Amino acid sequence: MKGQRHDRVDSEYRKEISSVISGALKNKEPELKGIISVTGADVSPDFKTAKVFVSVLGKNKEEENRIFRIIEENAGFVRHELSLVMRSRTVPQLTFVRDGSMEYGSKMDALFSGLHKED
User: Fold this and answer.
1) With the C-alpha atoms ordered 56, 61, 67, 69, is the resulting torsion angle positive or negative?
2) How many CA atoms lie less than 13 Å away from 60 in the CB half-sphere?
3) What does residue 60 show for φ and ψ, rounded to 5 degrees?
4) Residue 14: in which H helix or E strand, if any?
5) DSSP-derived secondary structure letter, 46
6) What pLDDT does residue 53 have?
7) Cβ distance 34 to 59 under 8 Å?
8) Is residue 79 a contact partner of residue 91, using CB atoms and an 8 Å limit?
9) Residues 45-71: pLDDT tens digits?
10) Does pTM top 0.90 for this prediction?
11) Which residues of 38-71 are buried (b: 16+ CB within 10 A; e: fewer)?
12) Any idea of the CA torsion for 96, 100, 103, 106, to the nearest 10 degrees?
């Protein structure tokens, strides 16, 4: 069971990882284009590992897959940048997980727009 402190830690990691990806990682990897959103972070109670949920929206599936691979390959870089910002003894090992919620949301928007056009 998670407590309020753990929820704050998850939120802080989500915010900082998002900042690192949109700043330092985009400067390092100019191929990162499209909309990249860190939708959540789940840090383990011992702070050794963290699952980071990332949603990628690009021009096509191929570009989205390429962007996500770049993020996965640079997990160590993101972790290093976090160690410079976070005030904790250890920075967890990051595992990036693809979150399809943005893709699902845009698909639903398109379906609803299609319904309104038929009326």
Assistant:
1) positive
2) 1
3) -150, 175
4) helix 4-20
5) T
6) 95
7) yes
8) yes
9) 888 999 999 998 888 889 999 999 999
10) no
11) bebbbbeeebeebebbbbbebeeeeebebbbebb
12) -130
For residue 74, which of 92, 96, 48 has the smallest C-alpha distance? 96
pLDDT at position 93, please? Answer: 95
What tokens appear for 45 in the block? Answer: 């109670």
Query: Over 80: is that where the pLDDT of 105 sits?
Result: no
Q: Mean pLDDT throughout 17-32?
A: 92
DSSP state of 21: I
pLDDT at 110: 83
pLDDT of residue 92: 93
φ and ψ of 36, to 5 deg: -115, 125
Specify the residue for token string 């996500």: 68
Q: Distance (Å, rounded) from C-alpha 116 to C-alpha 119?
A: 5
Cβ proximity of 41 and 53 under 8 Å? yes
Q: Which of 42-46, 74-78, 104-108 has the highest average model confidence (pLDDT)?
A: 74-78
Q: Which residue has the tokens 């870089």?
A: 77
